[in-house]
Amino acid sequence: MPSSMMYYEDTYVVLPPDMQEQFVTQPELEQILHDLLIDIQDALPYDLQNLAISEQVQRLIKTACNLDCGDRGTWQWYVVRLDK
User: Fold this and answer.
1) With bands split at pLDDT 50, 70 and 90, how would you rate the model's confidence at 5?
2) Using H for helix, E for strand and C for coil, what is the string for the chain?
3) What is the rounded CA–CA span in Å between residue 11 and residue 44?
């Protein structure tokens, strides 16, 4: 039986357009996505329109791994497990 640790999502790697990876916690990822979404409210993907920003952030974390921010480039994030 797999360990419950396999499903614990507490650390993410974020790849901004300049490809300088950052390891962040979930609250830090939420803040990064929040700031990006504030800047692109006029060009949101269809599934994020008509949602509050906090709901947009949670939807992205649960259902996506990248966000096209127009002139700010495409941002990517992935959950990672740092402990064996």
Assistant:
1) very low
2) CCCHHHHCCCEEEEECCCCCCEEEEHHHHHHHHHHHHHHCHHHCCHHHCCCCHHHHHHHHHHHCCEEECHHHCEEEEEEECCCC
3) 26
Judging by DSSP bridges, how do beta strands 11-15 and 74-80 pair with one another?
antiparallel
Q: What is the pLDDT of residues 12-46, one digit of tens each?
A: 999 999 878 999 999 999 999 999 999 999 889 88
Structure tokens at 55: 């709901």
Q: Which residue has the tokens 């952030």?
A: 57
pTM: 0.84
- 39-53 burial string, b = 16+ CB within 10 Å, else e? ebeeeeeeebeeeee
The residue among 68, 82, 79, 73 whose CA lies nearest residue 29 is 79
